[in-house]
Design brief:
Layout: H1 2-14, H2 24-31, H3 37-44, H4 49-58, H5 68-72, H6 76-88, H7 94-107, H8 113-123, H9 126-138, H10 140-144, H11 147-155, H12 163-174, H13 178-190, H14 203-206, H15 212-221, H16 230-236, H17 243-254, H18 264-269, H19 276-285, H20 293-307, H21 313-326, H22 331-338, H23 344-351, H24 358-369, H25 374-385, H26 395-405, H27 410-419, H28 422-427, H29 429-443, H30 450-460, H31 465-475, H32 481-491, H33 501-506, E1 515-520, E2 523-529, H34 535-546, E3 557-559, E4 563-566, E5 594-597, E6 609-612, E7 624-631, H35 633-638, E8 645-651
Amino acid sequence: MKKLFLIFLFVSVNLWAQFNRDNRDLILTAANRTFDKDIISKYLSSSNESDVKAALIALYHSNDSTFVDDIKKTDFSKYGREAAFALGGISNCRSSIDLLFRELQINANANSFREIIEAIGKTGNQSDFLKLIIMTEKYKPFAMKSAMGILNFQLRNFSLEGREALILLRIINESEDNNDIEEALFTLFRKTPTGITEAQFNYNQLLKSNDNEIVISTIKLIPKIEIKEKEKLLLSYLYNDDWRLRAEAAKGLCNLTDLSLESFKPILKLLLDKNPNVSRLTAISLRNIKTSPLGMGLLLNGINYYLKKDLTKNSKGELFISLCKLDKENAYNYLNEYADKVNENYVIRVLEEVKSSPEYNYNYLSKNISKENEKDVMNSAQAFLNLQKELTDSIKYRDKLFGLLGSKFPSIISIIADGLDSTYIDNFSNEIKAIILDQIKRYKNNSDYYESIASLGGLSSKFGKEFQEIVLKELSQSNVTSIKNYADSQMGIKTVKKENPLFEKLLKNNFLIKQFLVKTNKGEIKIELMPEIAPITVGSFTKLVNEKFFDNIIFHRVVPNFVIQTGDPSGTGWRGPGYDIISETSTFPYKEGMIGMASAGKDTEGSQWFIMHSYYPHLNGKYSLFGKVISGMDTVNNIDQDDKIISITPIR
């Protein structure tokens, strides 16, 4: 109940007005990326506050600097948050940045400080970062709302040599807003400077918080801070009721530089944890332990002991990889001992790195890359690709490698195109160019191949500008919007926007049914969709549910204490419904239980969706958030990779 309460509390307090069923023309002009100025103007000049806010949110994806003057005319005291959000989507525009700074200093309501600073972080340069930090150092209300702005600068690789860390520490120690503290902790963790001391970081107070997100983020930071008895502190959380704290404590312990041998036993015991995510993250984290020869011997014995226990297939597989990474000299012995005891995918992942017997690897992998199942081939493709230097002179290897580049599977095409060695590119240019041209002609009109096409486009550039132009001109004729946009952007051509009839169909019933029951092999999850935030995404999801598209699809990606992801009928993470939809970025943060749509880039969404285990602010404003879990987080937390959706049904 506590987790549900926190989710409901957040949504009820922070729900911004966006779209409703009467905004059809605004939704469609934004979805088609035409941003009809007459329609936008009508909404911006409306006496209805919800209409104005909806228009401002819609403008985020316009990236059209001519709208800055229209945004400037809005009343920032009333619409500051939405206006700032819109300006944050208009990149490389000095007038947008100047307007944000002006409103921050002169006219903005204090309620919009956070959104304005966040937008500056999305679009400003290094000088703007310095200006912002100086302002936050002088004025506490700015400082308390600056974490997301700093994070956005960091995500764009801007830094001020630790000066921003002092602002983040100030937020952590002085703010009374849990959201601000959570975001500051995450941002500090992402790029923690050395030398932060116990006196600067009041972890004892943070660990007493009734907000578990704050406690989790604090535990993540403990290994990076100069404090006494951090090992003892982390050990105390190995028995916490919240599985996320158990998992993060184990991970933190494994990353300590001076972990005592006495801690090995309680950490290893977590491999038998009732939660599969705790067990799996522990198995992964063990490979980070640095210890003495005596300690390594004890650790390897412990791992071998638990490999014989009844672990989940994913925990056992990750533990096997940890064993091979910690003792690389004996990796082939472990392969012979455990190859029939762990899932084959984990054996192959070891072969990606262990290559001292390339013929062994080649023979083992060859049987998989010839299979008809995409997932089997994909699992082996990277390990096979990694043998390029070892088998440069092998004709049989080269033939199979080029065969993979000419595969019918999108995942395989992309893996090989992205990793093909310069030796092959230089010596076999005609053969490779012929494969590239054949593949793009075959798949340029299939949205499932967007990432493959982009990889082939990148490979074509290595053969010179003339050949790359031939490839891009072919791709510019694609009837798949995302592929055509890719080609046009590479050629510097401004894409002519066309209306997509699919989007109008997707809007038909998406405001009528909001709740759905997701039945899995681990239990049920009740979700509520948010068409007012992402109407096209909700329409597409509803359409696919009605078509039984998600029935019997696995959760192909589970990252402990991050996300569970599903929606790909191939189970590889590379497929979708056969069409693209748009990105529908909103102001909602990716907290625990929120549901988002996976993407390979702007406007490449399809059917893959994910549910959050915990709050990860770096996702905010970058993926289409379209729903939330309203019951069944216990099921979400127990989903393991390859668990299955049985069915999804509407709740009418």
